[in-house]
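During the reporting period, our protein records have gained a structure token line. A sample record is set out beneath this paragraph:
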Amino acid sequence: MQAKKQITRMDITSIVEAIQREGVWVVFLNVLLQQLGLPIPAVSTLLVAGSLAVSSSQAGEMLAAAVLASMLADWTWYMAGRAFGYRVLSGLCKLSINPGSCVSETEGRFIRWGPWSLIAAKFIPGFSTVAPPIAGSLRMPLPSFLTAAGIGAALWAGLAILAGWLLRDQVRSAMEMMSRHGVEAIAVIAIVLGAWVLWKLWQKYRFERLAAIPHITPVELMEALESNEPPLLLDFRGAALVAQDGPIQCATQASVDDLPQAAGEWSKEHPIVTLCACPEDATAIRAAQLLMKLGFKSVRPLKGGYEAWMKHAGDEQRPATPHAAGG
């Protein structure tokens, strides 16, 4: 046990020495990797870096490094979104433990808040990675994007470094305590991390239970659309994908938030099919659950969502080609 404590103390001491010696590069690499999507902490590094800065000029250099790293990562994701569109966001959300509402929630924030979302993104875990590709998919002008991303990065990193500088005595005391009680500190961190993972897995389990409702297959949907009583097809794709691919000719564009108001005009006996471009058909399932609570008798999500639709729909049913986006 004593040996483990000694090793932990040496590890913390070496980290402190590395930050004191190469603080700018440590901050740059840490922020860059974190903003690119790696699950590593950055705020704690900025706090420690701020507490160990020997002068205000060194703190300023660390801030500049953090802002540059953050903007470089944001620019990378922006260009990926501009080049590959909605697939980038969908791919990022599939990597999360609970991808159920990732696409709809993140894009909804961006649509509601506009450029301000890029500033707020830095303070919302996970959103900072997915906001830039949304901006790229929506063809947000690059100067506006870089300005908003830079302001957000400066506020986020600046507040963390400033807090570390102002609380340097407390931060150093905390590091010394961790050095003396390293094994216990690691155990507490492991417990907290384990609890977070369990909570995410519980959310995923709850979503999977809610998702256990009858779906309609693409083949069944195509046959139903050609029948005498075709279902009402609701398209819950986000604005980014609609702007990229165009609207589906035989579908009604819909939003989960506006669904209760819009549904008041529909017959509760008429069959409805919900469609989205989310991992695990998440938004389509949420919409179907909501419609059933509102009293609609026959509501089914499309199995496989928009991707399955594109594989099975005929040319006359596919999205209309949108006008070329400017900028």
The chain has two domains: 2-210, 218-312. The radius of gyration is 24 Å.
